[in-house]
Amino acid sequence: MDGIQKAVIAVDGAKVSFGAVKALDGVTLRVMPGECVGLVGHNGAGKSTIVSVINGGLTPQAGSVASDDERLERYGINAARARGVRCVFQELSLCPNLSIVENTRIMHRDLGGFGWRTRAQKIIEQSLDTVFPGHSIGSSRAVGDLSIAERQMVEIAMAFSDAGIAPRLVILDEPTSSLDASLARQMLDHVRRFVAAGGSVIFISHILHEILETSDRIIVMKDGRVVAERPAHGFDHHGLVEAMGTVAKEGTGQRLSREQAAAPPILSHQAEGLSFKAHEGEIIGLAGLAGHGQTELLLALHAAQSGNWRPERDPLVTFVAGDRRLNGVFELWSILRNFSIASLGDLSRRGLILAKEEETKGADWKRRIEIRTPDLHNRILSLSGGNQQKVLFARALATRAPIVLMDDPMRGVDVGTKQEVYKIIREEAARGRTFVWYSTEMDEVRLCDRVYVFREGRIMDELAADAVNETNIITASFSGVPA
Amino acid sequence: MTLRLSSDAMRLVIPALSLTLLLAAVFWLQPRAMSYVGLNLLFNLAVPIALATIAQMLVMAVNDLDLSMGTFVSFIACVTATFLRDAPVTGVLILVGAIATYAGLGVVIHLRNLPSIVVTLGMSFVWGGLGVLLLPAPGGQSPDWVRWLMTVKPPLAPMAIVASIIIAVVAHLVVMRSSLGVLIRGIGGNPRSVERAGWSIVAARGAAYGLAGVFAVLAGIALVGLTTSADANIALRYTLLSIAGVILGGGEFIGGRVSPIGAVIGALTLTLAGSFLSFLRISADWQIGAQGAILIIVLAFRLMLNRVEKREKGR
């Protein structure tokens, strides 16, 4: 111990621009050993870009990267990995067609040679057992067969696994977005253990209380710059939101108490457990632990209301997908096409699309929900994740369907965008649209008029009006489970 | 739970089942086929097809498609029947050059981000032209060792069966068990993640194409061993047969989901389908159509099974 510790990674004055967009505008960031750095910011603030710089995927046009006080001229993916920099990405970064063991082989380049399967299996199972004790993931299963939560668990375990080069700096980009509370807890506990043992973590999350309680130091980014940097105890929830420069207001979740129970439901479904009913203009939340049957109910509702062969003339339901890369966006299409695909029936005459009307409608929605792009004809992937999600919302809302099904659509969306979308949802609900909203985030569930709580594929409880609160939901989610 | 564990095995169920069914039907129609000689006759043309199918599978594993397989195998057959017999050193050099060209194609396709279909379609004319230059008319003669290899009579099982098993095992080891195989399939599954782990995708893709070249060369040599002479058009139908074989064997066009054992079984099934139709005395005019019908039935069956599998998973 020589008193002054050397930074695991120090980025100095990094500048990156993509065309006219300045993604990073001179960012300086140091990560010391034994420290968890929280990184927060609006979508497009440059978090992902700085992550790419640190993990070697991107060379900054100006500025330098140093590690252990040694300036690295040729810093690339391999140099980063050799220094123990690992990354868990927001989207799936495993090969779905390969088994977990085979993915481990891909992640660790120096695992080769005879008998690598046994070694890889040992490494990944050990890591899974450490991070998520009590998990039930068999390492011979193909990643594509796992649920989203399980995949994320594997990715996290993969980043913390040690095959020769021990991980020194693990970057976690929205690691808990698909995990339910107890799994997220396990992961955050592991982060603290890892940091206590001298490792470093860069932790990116939109779930602010996770950042606040897990990080030692929090860096707030905005428009490609670091705008605030303080020890974690120097921030509180409100302060963080303020520093990010968003307009999130506390207590926006005030519900209007309306008398709806008398009207006949426009949608009902006999699921296991309690039966599901939806009235006009209601926002209905589906809560409970992740993966306990909420998505299945949404799919069943959608299947029951749409024809198998021919599209309905006047569809009753429309769907906002949660896993936008998997079943949300058409990656090769423009923003406009992605937006208009659901309402092409209304936008065409005699089988031909009315290009003018499509443009007008697109421009109209672009303004209404503020899709941040200079041109709707840009490719959808040119947008940040949150804006892509907004396009998917616009796609659903632009249809005439009176019921909107939402499958945890706010995963990985920044706070500002969320508030904007919440506002739109409330407006639309006031006009008589019905929303069925599965969400893994408590703040969102609290916005709902009525909430069904799921447990193991069954609706366990129905909460309405003032009964919708965290305590009640958690109680219902864990009911019938021996603590 | 047992269903989940064996999603790779599930992939093999349909091809294995359809091969067994066809084989049973053939034996029922023509019991004399149920012998050492009969089996060899039924299956010996399957050996080059199986090799070409493995080659195609390697290309498909990286999400590409090789439309030059047929003309390439024909070209190799021409080389085998001429240079490899008369001037072995030159012949071997040509074959090595051909494999290197294949690897080079993989590199070019990746670096220039070209659609493989276009590049290989273009190359198919190049290979075809080279084949015609070598053998303007059918002719040539297979080298004696090749002839010997393809007509050898191993104990217990006929050469065609033994060769198919060897091909399946070798391909399985290379594609499913080795690190290189994992890397190649990884590129088909999620190239970004492979890249982020620090691998060179260019090299891996080149390796996949190079390996495909090796198997395709073997296919050409095996074919000449069976036919004793060659022709520039001898294997044109291999392009579609090899693609059909991969799909029949449980492989998929994209996503790096391939199965070498399935591919060999698929090739055997396709060969057998031809014999089966002959035994049924279906006129040659209808055979291609009937073969297509068999393909459609098997694939429909596979889709049905996929559905059942999905429902079992309950996702």
UniProtKB/TrEMBL annotation, chain A:
<dbReference type="InterPro" id="IPR003439">
    <property type="entry name" value="ABC_transporter-like_ATP-bd"/>
</dbReference>
<comment type="similarity">
    <text>Belongs to the ABC transporter superfamily.</text>
</comment>
<dbReference type="Pfam" id="PF00005">
    <property type="entry name" value="ABC_tran"/>
</dbReference>
<keyword id="KW-0472">Membrane</keyword>
<dbReference type="InterPro" id="IPR050107">
    <property type="entry name" value="ABC_carbohydrate_import_ATPase"/>
</dbReference>
<dbReference type="InterPro" id="IPR017871">
    <property type="entry name" value="ABC_transporter-like_CS"/>
</dbReference>
<keyword id="KW-0547">Nucleotide-binding</keyword>
<keyword id="KW-0677">Repeat</keyword>
<feature type="domain" description="ABC transporter">
    <location>
        <begin position="8"/>
        <end position="248"/>
    </location>
</feature>
<protein>
    <submittedName>
        <fullName>Ribose transport system ATP-binding protein</fullName>
    </submittedName>
</protein>
<dbReference type="InterPro" id="IPR003593">
    <property type="entry name" value="AAA+_ATPase"/>
</dbReference>
<feature type="domain" description="ABC transporter">
    <location>
        <begin position="256"/>
        <end position="481"/>
    </location>
</feature>
<dbReference type="GO" id="GO:0005524">
    <property type="term" value="F:ATP binding"/>
</dbReference>
<keyword id="KW-0067">ATP-binding</keyword>
<keyword id="KW-0813">Transport</keyword>
<dbReference type="InterPro" id="IPR027417">
    <property type="entry name" value="P-loop_NTPase"/>
</dbReference>
<keyword id="KW-0762">Sugar transport</keyword>
<dbReference type="GO" id="GO:0016887">
    <property type="term" value="F:ATP hydrolysis activity"/>
</dbReference>
TrEMBL record, chain B:
<feature type="transmembrane region" description="Helical">
    <location>
        <begin position="234"/>
        <end position="254"/>
    </location>
</feature>
<dbReference type="GO" id="GO:0022857">
    <property type="term" value="F:transmembrane transporter activity"/>
</dbReference>
<keyword id="KW-1003">Cell membrane</keyword>
<keyword id="KW-1133">Transmembrane helix</keyword>
<feature type="transmembrane region" description="Helical">
    <location>
        <begin position="156"/>
        <end position="175"/>
    </location>
</feature>
<feature type="transmembrane region" description="Helical">
    <location>
        <begin position="286"/>
        <end position="305"/>
    </location>
</feature>
<feature type="transmembrane region" description="Helical">
    <location>
        <begin position="116"/>
        <end position="136"/>
    </location>
</feature>
<keyword id="KW-0472">Membrane</keyword>
<feature type="transmembrane region" description="Helical">
    <location>
        <begin position="41"/>
        <end position="60"/>
    </location>
</feature>
<feature type="transmembrane region" description="Helical">
    <location>
        <begin position="90"/>
        <end position="109"/>
    </location>
</feature>
<keyword id="KW-0813">Transport</keyword>
<feature type="transmembrane region" description="Helical">
    <location>
        <begin position="261"/>
        <end position="280"/>
    </location>
</feature>
<keyword id="KW-0812">Transmembrane</keyword>
<protein>
    <submittedName>
        <fullName>Ribose transport system permease protein</fullName>
    </submittedName>
</protein>
<feature type="transmembrane region" description="Helical">
    <location>
        <begin position="12"/>
        <end position="29"/>
    </location>
</feature>
<dbReference type="GO" id="GO:0005886">
    <property type="term" value="C:plasma membrane"/>
</dbReference>
<feature type="transmembrane region" description="Helical">
    <location>
        <begin position="206"/>
        <end position="228"/>
    </location>
</feature>
<keyword id="KW-0997">Cell inner membrane</keyword>
<dbReference type="Pfam" id="PF02653">
    <property type="entry name" value="BPD_transp_2"/>
</dbReference>
<dbReference type="InterPro" id="IPR001851">
    <property type="entry name" value="ABC_transp_permease"/>
</dbReference>
